[in-house]
Prior knowledge:
The protein is mainly β. The protein is built from 1 helix and 13 strands. The strands form 2 sheets. It has a 7-stranded antiparallel beta sheet with strand order 2-5-12-7-8-10-11, with no helix packed on it. Strands 1, 3, 4, 6, 9 and 13 form a 6-stranded antiparallel beta sheet that branches. It is globular.
Amino acid sequence: MKSLLLFVILALALTGCISKSPSEPSPAISKNLTLHQFNKDTGTTGWEIQNDAVMGGLSQGRLVLNQDGNALFTGTISLDNNGGFSSFQRDFPPTDVSAYRTLCIGLKGDGKRYQVRVESTPGARHGYAFDFPTHGQWEVIEIPFEQMYPIHHGDRLDRPNYPGHTLSQLQILAGDGRAESFRLEIDSIWFQ
C-alpha cells in the first residue's frame, strides 16, 4: 500500500499536479532548456559585475547568493561622470537555442525597469536587448526572441531582431536614466 501511495505522489509531481507554493519562484520546466538555476550548489560562479566605471561612471552593483539560494543583484545607479548603469553577465559556450522561441527569467523585482541583453556569438560586434518592468512580486518575464532588438553600446541598430539560433552571453542591466538604488532577486533563467 505504501509503495502504491508513493507511486501516485511521484506521478502527480512529475505531471505538475503538485507544485511549489505561489510565493516561491517558478523554476524552469524540464521540457525547457535551463541556462542557469541559481541555488546553493551553482551559486553565482561565472557571473561578473560590469558597472559604468568602464566609461568613468560611479554606479555600484553587487551580486550575491541570498539565504534562499537565489541571486540577489543590488546597488546604486549614479549619473555622475556620464555613468548610469550596473549589470551582471556571464559568457557561455555557444549554445544552440534554435528549438526555442522565448527567453524566460524567474525573478522578483523592485518595481523598476531592467534590460536583458544577449549575444549570439563570442565577441559579437552587436547584441540584442529587451526592456522589462518588474512589479515587486515573483513573476516570470517571458521575452520572445523576435522582440529582442539589436544594439551596440546601448544604441539601437537598423538590423533584424534576434534570430534565436545561438547564445554565447547573457547580461541583465539596471539603469533607466535615473539616479536610484535597485534590487533584483533571480531564481532561474531558461528557454521555452
